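Shape is hard to put into words, and the shape of a protein is harder than most. The fold becomes a row of whole numbers, each drawn from a learned catalogue of backbone shapes. The outcome of that step, for a single protein, is printed below.
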Amino acid sequence: MKNAILHNLSEDNRRKIRMQQDTERFHRVVNGNYELVKYLPGSSIRIWYNVETTNFSTHWHPAFEIIIPLENTYTVKVSNEEYHLQPGDILIIPAGELHDLIAPNSGSRLICLFDSAIISKLNGFSYLMPYISQPILLSQDTHSQIYTEEANLLEKMCEEYFSDNNLRELAIYSHLLNFFVTLGRYRMNVENTFSYVHQTKQKELIDKLNIVFDYLDLHYMEDITLEKVANVAGFS
């Protein structure tokens, strides 16, 4: 079944997106393996209609990343696992994960980046962490019960991002929260609720991640290494 994103992103809509996205502001700033995500001024969201054929070597950033191939396949390596994405697949990469992006000779995909610090401190978000702390591949085959709903939410985020609506960022985060809540509830139902001890450990994890995000906000111009970040948060 054709998913909502592929169905609604006609060539006309894709042409509009290519014209609207600010290509001059999009350039990578990498310090070692750490990538400073270049959001548009006053924003904490980046949605990129990507047609590049170059690869992105191993990097990480304090942003959630969602990748959706539109035309042709796309390969993503997260830690030691490779994901060979088909058009319409939705891959969620948690903040802080080392990953590589391997492009085919042609094709297009949406690469969405969201500042994790914006939502990670919300009350209740720590309960979602067990379900989004590892890469997740959503497809019609793997998540048929929620796939269409999740794809529709991503489509709405894209529509808002490339609109002139003054409330677009607020609207995008409302859709993003709905996206994660839908995924979290689905996985809770599949795996059943976890114990209080597990919840406490996840609360400790989210607190440490927030320390990392605050540190990166203050020191992103410095020579940042994973070892230094691990020491700051007490992961080492």
